[in-house]
């Protein structure tokens, strides 16, 4: 059994990977190349052109939670099982969303501007208590955020694809047809859903127009779920009050992007889940799956390729 593992691993990590699958031959590589022909599994991205040259390939594992970057048309059409690291960054993503909510609700950038000028600038700001958060996505990150929002005494609304699945901490669960009401009732709309065919561009002009003029939009999962042009217009015209953006349609966000300078926008550089713990949880998922694959056991975090996550 041959497994190609891409990415950077130190000797200790390589030892642990070998120990997880002692019967397999592991090849550590910067990226996938000609040796794909003999590979049974790949950890990392398999370029579309190489898939046709991989007759033995049965498993691809994504080191990221989101698989939008690895789920090519060829992989979708194939019998290859795709697994993800979903859940690895849920806790820091939820923490980052709370940070953005608090900063937006208290106009924290105003304090930071005043501090840089040594100016004492007190202002009346908001409380999260009693406000309504609308969670678009109720997976690992969304449900952790629901619990955190509850601890801040917020009212929690949620949307997910599978409405029959329980959503602890969520006061009201909305189905896809109820999107306008979900938006209209939220003081903060927070996107934690993956980028898929169904979510791409979901936050368009109509969506922002359906939100309260006092509401803020926060995205911590993936750019492209919001139509950036529509979001910019909504922010400039005051159709919504502000935005906190860790994920952007184009990354890195270009230096001339208007998002950098809008006073009601907080930009962070896709950094919300960049913690050592995220890396550790992701590595643990990989170790677990490697062992399962080597032993012929069912894999965890199997992606529903048709759904895109
Ligand atoms: N910024 C970063 O550094 C960073 C780090 C890690 C992850 N991420 C992103 O965060 C995303 C979420 O991570 P996670 O671990 O929470 O993933 P997850 O556990 O797979 O949760 C995804 C959630 O999105 C929901 N969803 C999918 N399609 C939807 C749709 N069309 N409408 C409404 N909801 C939909 C799912 O619904 P069901 O519950 O019904 O299946 C699920 O609740 C990842 O996909 C990744 O893109 C970003």
Output the keywords.
15% strand; 2 domains; alpha/beta; D-isomer_DH_NAD-bd; Rossmann fold; seven-stranded parallel beta sheet; 309 residues; elongated; five-stranded parallel beta sheet; binds NADP nicotinamide-adenine-dinucleotide phosphate
Written account of the structure:
This protein has helices spanning 11-20, 48-51, 73-77, 90-105, 108-116, 140-151, 179-185, 205-210, 228-236, 276-295, and strands at 2-6, 25-29, 41-43, 59-61, 81-83, 132-136, 155-159, 172-174, 188-191, 216-219, 242-245, 265-267. With 309 residues, it is α/β, with parallel strands linked by helices. A 7-stranded parallel beta sheet has the order 8-7-6-9-10-11-12, with helices on both faces. Strands 2-1-3-4-5 form a 5-stranded parallel beta sheet, covered by helices on one side. Helix 3 (73-77) links the parallel strand 4 and strand 5 (81-83). NADP nicotinamide-adenine-dinucleotide phosphate (NAP) binds next to helix 4 and helix 6. NADP nicotinamide-adenine-dinucleotide phosphate binds at residues 65-66, 86-87, 89-90, 93, 136-142, 159-162, 165, 192-196, 198-199, 220-222, 246-247, 270, 272-273, 309.
């Amino acid at each position: 059994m041959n497994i190609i593992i891409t990415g950077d691993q130190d000797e200790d990590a390589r030892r642990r990977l070998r120990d997880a699958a002692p019967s397999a031959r592991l090849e550590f590589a910067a990226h996938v190349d000609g040796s794909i022909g003999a590979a049974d599994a790949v950890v990392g991205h398999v370029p579309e052109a190489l898939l046709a040259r991989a007759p033995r390939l049965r498993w691809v594992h994504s080191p990221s939670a989101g698989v939008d970057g690895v789920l090519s048309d060829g992989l979708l059409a194939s019998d290859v099982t795709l697994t993800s690291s979903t859940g690895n960054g849920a806790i820091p993503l939820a923490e980052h969303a709370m940070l953005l909510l608090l900063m937006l609700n208290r106009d924290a950038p105003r304090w930071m501007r005043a501090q840089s000028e040594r100016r004492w600038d007190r202002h009346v700001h908001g409380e999260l208590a009693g406000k309504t958060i609308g969670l678009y996505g109720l997976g690992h990150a969304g449900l952790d955020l629901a619990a955190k929002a509850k601890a801040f005494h917020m009212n929690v609304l949620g949307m997910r694809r599978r409405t029959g699945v329980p959503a602890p901490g969520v006061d009201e669960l909305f189905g896809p047809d109820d999107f306008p009401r979900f938006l209209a009732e939220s003081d903060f709309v927070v996107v934690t859903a993956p980028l898929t065919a169904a979510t791409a561009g979901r936050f368009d002009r109509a969506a922002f127009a359906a939100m309260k003029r006092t509401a803020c939009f926060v995205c911590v999962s993936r750019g492209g779920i919001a139509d950036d042009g529509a979001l910019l217009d909504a922010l400039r015209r005051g159709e919504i009050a502000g935005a906190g953006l860790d994920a952007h349609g184009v990354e890195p966000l270009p230096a001339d992007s208007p998002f950098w300078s809008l006073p009601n926008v907080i930009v962070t550089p896709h950094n919300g889940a960049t913690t050592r713990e995220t890396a550790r949880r992701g590595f643990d998922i990989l170790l677990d799956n490697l062992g399962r694959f080597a032993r012929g056991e069912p894999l965890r975090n199997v992606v529903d390729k048709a759904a895109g996550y």
